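Exercise 7. Given the components listed, write out the predicted structure of the assembled complex. Treat all entries as one system.
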Amino acid sequence: MTKAFAPRTLAEALTLLADRALGALPIAGCTDVLAGLHSAGGAPPAVVDISRLEELRGVHVSPPGLELGAALTFSELRHSELVQTHAPLLVDAAATIGAWQIQNRATLGGNIANASPAGDALPVLLALDATLVLASTTGERRVLYRDFHRGYRKTALAPGELIVRVLVPRAAGASVWRFRKVGTRAAQAISKASLAFAAELDGQGRFGKVRLAAGSVAPTPIRLLQSEEAAFGQHPSVELAERLATLAKSEVAPIDDVRSTADYRRFVLGQLVRRVVLEVMEQQRTATPRNDDRG
Amino acid sequence: MSQARAVMGQSPPRPDGPGKVSGRALFIDDMPFVDLWHGATVRCPHAKARIVRIDTSAVSDREAVFVTAKDLPGPNVVRAIAEDWRVLADDVALHAYEAVVLVAAPTAARAQAAAAEVRVEYEPLPAVLTYEQALAQGAEGLLASSNLAHGDVERALAQEGVRIIEGTYETGHQEHLYLEPNGIVAEVHQSGEVEITGSLQCPFYVQRALKYVLGIDAVRVRQATTGGGFGGKEDCPSLVAAHAALLARRSGHAVKIVYGRREDIVATSKRHPSRVHIKSAVRADGTFVAHDIDVLFDGGVYITMSPVVLARGALHASGPYRCPNVRVRARAVRTNTCPNGAFRGFGAPQTQFAMERHVDRIARALGIDPLSIRERNAFVEGDETSTGQILQTSVSAKACLAEAEQRTGFRATWGAYEKARRARTPLDGRPQRGIGLSLFWHGAGFTGNGEKRIMGTAAVALLEDGTVEVRAASTDIGQGTEVAFGQIAASAGIPATLVRVVLADTGRVPDSGPTVASRTIMVVGELVLRAAADLVSAVCAHAAKEQRAVGIRVREVDLVDGQGRTVSSFAEAARSLARAAGPQVFAAQYRPLAEQQFDEKENRGMAYPAFAWGCDVVEVEVDPDTFETRPTKVTAISDVGFVVHPVLCHGQVIGGTLQAIGWGYLEEMKLVEGRYQNDRFATYIVPTSRDVPAMESVLIENPGPVGPRGAKGIGEAPMDGGAPALLSAIENATGLVLATIPATPERLYAAQRAGAHAGAAEAAR
Amino acid sequence: MSNRICFDVNGKPATFEGDPLARLLDVLRVHLGLTGTKEGCGEGECGSCSVLLDGEVVCACLVPIAQVQGRAVTTIEGVGAETRAPLQQAFIDEGAVQCGACTPGMIIAAVALLAKHKKPTEAQAREHLAGNICRCTGYHAIFRAIDKVAGQTP
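Answer.
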């Protein structure tokens, strides 16, 4: 029978997780893992409940940016005024996860550690240049989120290591953000393709730093680096929209599966990129973008 | 609650309501049983395979017991219409997930664990999985056929002055996805009697099947509170019950089998996929001259319900339209997949999807709008159907169209959206809006001579204490059978407070037939009404004798004489009758309509005594970038003859129409090598509360010739119109012509690339 | 560390000793005999097993009992106190109950919704009930039932 531990501090939790002989699995919201733990041969020797550790909860703002506890649930993220103000794109993504029951339990850290290419918050973290704070008995280290995924469901987490905080740096100047998820239906939908877009605009309305991150179109959530580079310094225009769409489609490697086809996923990702640029262009045509503009 | 609120036409609270909203209602997995073991099933993973060896020796649980085909006491047959449906695979497994070994153990976990340790060696064999492969098998590949011929189609197609329009339309499997999976408990009593309790629609079907499998006469079947059926629990429970009973006998304990969700999806019946080809001759003004219709249904590997599903499909194939020349050639083919079965609509949604899409195609070719073409051809009273039946009465096709137009302004809106679509610029990111319409009919009662074969009986019993029991085999699977039968009894004059409707139990009720075919109110309700009326007469007669009064009749909850003076309460008189003459049962048996003659082989004559009619208007928004469709508004017009319970009747329309909409754009069931892929709620996509469009249901009452106050059935009709109306709306919004459902974004994208535009059809003119 | 979990169910103390990964759903249904909470899928995708955990609606099939330590669970059996009975009656009156399999979970979600928004708009109702699949009613009767009691619960 599995042994269950409910440590009261992070240090206690890390000590338990460092014990190789114990073979303990960290659990938080359990939404992705419990069904698997009940499958034949799935029950681990031990579990360590990290969902109530104070060090893993809480939202703080400091000069560098927003600090999010990894065990925050998506409901908490959505309703946090600080997250709404400083990382509204994360609120947008959180709202598309599963449904209310899932959002009340699923955690940001769990979404990251589960490392599904379809994880809804993940492209947003890429687009926001997030940094993960990982902790183990040997101490804390930081990993840029863009370096965290090593392959399909393979991450930079070392044995016994936990994601404890997620840092979202402040946006530098005037910015636009968009999050679009194409799912099978309006709620409780695993994504077919998703796009997180964050861009700075200079005084002349040209793109500065651009981040385009896509989900469900590759073995991991990915940044569309070539498309980002092509956008830098350019005015949003119809021509740019088409060019980026074409580029973006060449940067992804979607598959056929039970939900959708590679063809459609590639096509729709291009469409999402195209539309995002057109929207910014349209916005500029009718008004000046605000600091916290989000579609 | 006053008697006035309890009768037909009102919406009294459903008696099963309090139990369901409090969690007290017991579904089969909630019910306590003494000495209960649990069953699990080992299933073949191949679409077709020889079973080389079954080895249970590696199972570590020494208490577990097993049953294979070799252990069957009687025929390896689940008796439905034919006798080819097997309880367990024997030398060969014929569809993926067919049951091979049954396992029972003291707990569910142990049964599942033991099942996982059973080793079966298979030799996969080539499987038949497509229509083409099945047709190439000749007679071996044919499960059923149904043909009809009306007028002279060949001559009509060849005549001068007509346009010929052809199209092929396809639908896939649809999964019922009732929220409560299949579950059965089998108990073997000391006497040898087998008692089955479970989630099911047709207790007498289960009883009949089990008698045959077990070779015994003493089988009793009780329905537990059943969490949805939609046809999916019409025949599958017979198989599950056979499994549970065999394990119960083998183990010496009561055995419960409750399917997990994945198991339920991959191993039980679905709606028959269809491929329908229609070739029509029409006049320039849109008048239908001939329809030549070829229907293919995929029946899965056993016959089960296919002959009747096919027949109903064939009988509805030419739609609610007048047409002097109709030929239907319908075949159900055999593939190595789980046998397909009943699903709300039972063949009619498939053939009417095709005909409605075809009518839209005809309209486009002729430059006529979708409403006008239907108005021109819709049946009116006096018209003749494709079986030669004269629609004498209760025809509401045009009334439904008129109501739909009045409420939605369809014609003008459709025209405006057509214009808007043509004027659209490529950069426009706003949703494309469209409106679509469908017209449909649905015969009530068992297809053809089914009612004459069933000769159902219902009864109303006066108990010792003067209370009354309604006894029929009809099950409540959510639709409100219990409350409706209570209303019928109350309408006959029995005070509602005295009435109890017995849950279907073969030991307590006569066989009034299965809960299918939209027959529960029209056919069985009529029997309940007659039986109840007989009971009321008997009570009145008794009171007259006792009170030495004349002209006794019911008024509210009392009996009054010819002068209107209260003579007694009904309750007192009933008690008195029970005391005097003992408890009595008043039974009523189905009386075939003299004029309901039907030749099932030729599909000629009166196919159904009455038809429900409907018109659906669906509005959509389609994302121009992603092809995601969002149904925004549905207006459903239904003629049900007479509305017994307004709240529940609307509930059937709204719920059924949403299932049809889901089938139209969300619900895709993919197969790989004959194995279902979409085997979870997360991957078999049905509408959530965020997907459901605004919906309006309008009920029309055009009483039919039979049934309580002319009620014509409502359970299935809502399934017939949603999908084609949805595709019609998508076409109006995007110009994309789809002939296959579900209309997923992937399909719309493919259609866009293939140039399947409405514009193309118009340009070819 | 002990494998003895103590928690509250519908206001009454309960204990469970056994597999700490046992699903809250099974502890409720089998161990405590509270069969009102249903299993429709076992994977948190249908909402039939919805319960309140410290007032928040969750799927009981996805909660290991170890995480219920010291917490309060409310099941459908715990709904029906004077303030909530109107919701259950409204479900019956409006036709929001047909087969009943989704009903306990749906009512739990509705209770949570009304606790969060006293008079929810239809959009709020749609969003908060999206985790509860109903195959029978088409949802509108459920929206009407909630609307009927909205503003009445204290």
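Discussion: Chain B is about 30% helix and 25% strand. The first strand of chain B starts at residue 36 and ends at 43.
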